[in-house]
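Listing S7. Sequence submitted for prediction.
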Amino acid sequence: MSPDDSELIERCRAGDLSAFEPLVEKYRQRVWRLAYQILRDREEAWDVAQEAFVRAYQSLPAFRRQSAFYTWMFRIVVNLATDRQRQRGARARALGGEPVPEEEWERSVPDPTADPAGLAARAEQREMIRRALDSLPLNYRAIIMLSDVEGLTYREIAEVLKIPMGTVMSRLHNARKRLRGLLGPLLVLALALCLGLYPAALWAQQAVPVSVRVLLQTRQAPAAPPPKAEDPYMRKLQQHFPNRQYEQLDLIQARVPVGQAQRFPLPGGRELEISPTGVRGSAASIRFTILKGATREVAVSADMQPGKPFSIVGPPHGSGILHLVIVAGE
């Protein structure tokens, strides 16, 4: 158990209720993500997450610290979510119906600029992945989440699920084999979706995931055509601007709370300040500032839609200029 967790737990045991709040902030996204992958329902996952933290707080006097706090917490989540899933199945059978996956009743406004064929292909991929994940038994789904998404060791998974380590290894092998047989090359995408990249749910917690690709853009034409980039965005830049070269210098990935500002280093002694100012629906309003010392070189605000790139062509650097490609919700 980390020293921070240990200190907070001791304060909770001494009656300091405020010491439990940092533990909730630290683990709530992971707790919700695990509950969601078992239940496949956002609202029920939030209910289970809330109940899990209440149970954890009430049970802290019985926590023996023989395992890490998060493995103990995950065990509570798995038990609650599994019980909820069984109760839901029993209710559905009693009423003669089946639960409807939220993907089937949720609707979104279509993007008029989007490619219909591309949208259809992505929707088909998502549906294939959803069905594959839903087809896994609960014990397989939970072990995939704990290992391949949360990064727990075999020993930690054994503690969470209360099963022998050998069972963990064999069950994980069988779960991966089954998913690989169902999805093939889509397996990596399936695990990415398991990471909980659900913008509405994430941003409802008032923390915006932001990814910034830092590129160096040079104006001179290359002596020979550059090799075709594997990355889709870099390939698009090559297509639209064949007389320019792009070199990726850095990749910034962060979750920035709404109402706060965080700074990240940029080449040339600069800093990028990211400050989400609000969330409305699925869009996040974010202010970006490039600073060099006390000088503000670039300041711009944008309403970011999940997954849609936003570019900032910034100040000169070396033989070219900095070009930032920003995506929120990824």
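Caption to Listing S7: primary sequence and predicted structure tokens for the chain studied. The first helix runs from residue 3 to 13. The chain has two domains: 3-197, 201-328.
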